[in-house]
Amino acid sequence: MSKRARNILTWIGTFIIMLIICLPGLWVILSAFRSNGEILTRPAVWIPERLSLDNFRSIFGYGENVVAIPVGSYFTNSLIISLTSTAIAVAIGMAGGYAFARFRFPGKSQAFLWFMLSRTVPGIALSLPIFILWSWMDIIDTKFGVILVYTAINVPFTIWLTEGFFRQIPRDLNEAAQIDGCTPWQAFWRVEFPLAKAGIASSGIFAFLTSWNEYALASQLTRSTDSKTLPVGLMDFTAQFTIDWAGMCAMAVIIIIPALILTFLVQKHLISGLTFGGVKG
Amino acid sequence: MADVSLKKVSKAYGSVKVVHGIDLEIAHNEFVVLVGPSGCGKSTTLRMIAGLEDISGGEIAIGGNVVNELPPRKRNISMVFQNYALYPHMTVRENLGFSLKIAGRPAAEITEKTNEAADILGLQPYLDRTPAALSGGQRQRVAMGRAIVRHPDVFLFDEPLSNLDAKLRTQMRVEIKKLHQKVQTTIVYVTHDQVEAMTLADRIVIMKDGHIVQTGTPLELFERPVDTFVATFIGSPPMNLVDGEIDGGKVRFADGTTVPLAAGLKEISNGRKVRFGFRAEDLTPVGHGLAEMSGAARLDLTIGLAEPLGSETILLTELAGTEVQGKMFNPRPVKSGEVLPCLLAIDKCHLFDAETGKTLRLR
């Protein structure tokens, strides 16, 4: 097969795979800009006749068909919960990752293995025990309760990722800094932290996206506008007999946008986070 | 005054002892090289002086103060690491000034001292580059510059040249020696390369298996090795060693060849098993020696292989079934298989006990 033919086949293959991956997302975005009527038409209308921002207007309380959903509150809740749990997870994960990379202590490799194994348990399998525990502690339907769960989910992965980054930094640098007059704490902040920044940032983004997009656990643990997050809020568009697909898609777009912007801004770090941190001897 | 004193210093990792209670006194401004094969404890010793490793026993003093419990930053030492350990996120200027910045020195002083170090090491053109944009030799110089800006009491070098190619290594060796002349500070230098040790040191400390085997000036070690380890470790090519037996003022080898012993070695009792040692430059073809030899033994040797180096040729031959090396000065072409009459300078030969390897007499 000639090189050109191989290239064409590769392109076709890539196109088909990307189509499969992107189609649902594309459909959501398209549907966010058209009416329920057009969405439900059979056979499906692929190229919309008219794109409008009506759905967005109505979920924010403007225009003719106002949807009574507190998107603003959900957005704020999502932001508070995601940012807080990410900050805590990164702080703990960074300390833990550094400890695993630098110090020798009994049970180290077992502990590390258990962190990884905890990732294999699907979150939903833990939802019932968490629900019971949380209701005993009376933190159901609070932001704190959700933050706690998300922090627990994110810490092992953050530790794993930052450990890889810290391990890549030669120990000599820390020692050189100590000889140059740094305390161990200064050596960390002035030398090792700046070098691991990319890794820590990417672990933070992963943690943020996990929290931002999580639905299953949040749907169990939240009920009121005080604590419901955006993904849970999507369900508000389902009534007893109808589903407001257009409104739901518009809100889905609102959920996607911050994640998308974030990913684009830091995609370089994300990729290096995945490859750099992942390559370990 | 910044002399360094090690008293019964030992280091153990769990039950494994890597340094066995060594004693060493290093004088102010002295250039001491710790040398030995890998795993001999030389780097560990250096790291204990630096405070990067805790000591398991004994006492380390710098400038008369015991520093056993002091962290590295309080010992007023500088260290150059094998892989340079430059801070990759800082420019050369920031690397050089880092220690002064940490110490809270005023900006003007940092600039002045950074420039001073950059001048000494020829780093002015590179001050705004990051380490990634420097060659190996330049990085090495930055590492040295970072060490000298602080005017420390003691410089520690941990195999600083082993990541450089042969040519650059020779060049940097000269620079390190010049640096020592310029800044006049006590230096402790670790290497596994005996050439570096010989060329740089005021005094060499040879270590093996966590013990100090011998301490002395380069020439003392070369001329009076205490055992076969030092004899073969110092000098290139290594000292030739041939097993034999004492027989009436001579040493008799396995094939019956005898070589007379120098006056000082003649009293050793008959029948004692020995290892007979001599250096390549003391076995030379007739007419190709360094000087007239008095009391040389004559041996006819078949040349197995000749390695011409230009100014001299290394000759590989056999003495009593053992491969030995000789040297031909003012060389002429030599064919493999050629038989050459050679002279062995017996007053420069060494005798070691066959079992313990210890020298039987210092000549």
Folded structure, characterized:
The complex is a heterodimer of chains A (281) and B (363). Chain A has 281 residues and is mainly alpha-helical. Chain A has 13 helices and no strands. Chain B is α+β, with helices and mostly antiparallel strands. Chain B folds into 2 domains: 4-232, P-loop containing nucleotide triphosphate hydrolases (Rossmann fold, 3-Layer(aba) Sandwich), CATH 3.40.50; 238-353, Nucleic acid-binding proteins (OB fold (Dihydrolipoamide Acetyltransferase, E2P), Beta Barrel). In chain B, the strands form 4 sheets. A 6-stranded mixed beta sheet of chain B has the order 6-7-8-3-9-10, sandwiched between helices. In chain B, strand 1 and strand 2 form a beta hairpin. The A-B interface holds A 170, 172-173, 175-183, 186, 190-191, 194-195 and B 50-52, 71-73, 77-79, 81-83, 85-89, 98-99, 102-103, 146, 150.
Which tags fit this structure?
heterodimer; A: 281 residues; B: alpha+beta; Rossmann fold; OB fold (Dihydrolipoamide Acetyltransferase, E2P); 2 domains; 6-stranded mixed β-sheet; 34% strand
Radius of gyration of chain A, Cα only, in angstroms?
23 Å
The coarse overall form of chain B would be: elongated
Determine and state the CATH class of the largest domain in chain B: Alpha Beta
* Widest beta sheet: strand line-up of chain B: 6-7-8-3-9-10
Strand tally of chain B is 20
- Mean pLDDT over all positions of chain A: 86
Largest interface: which pair? A-B, 17 and 23 residues
Task: Give helix % range of chain B.
Answer: 10-25%
Number of strands of chain A: 0
Q: Give the N-terminus to C-terminus distance of chain B in angstroms.
A: 37 Å
Structural class by SSE content of chain A: mainly alpha
Count of DSSP H/I helices of chain A: 13
In a nutshell, what does this entry contain?
The complex is a heterodimer of chains A (about 280) and B (about 375). Chain A is mostly helical.
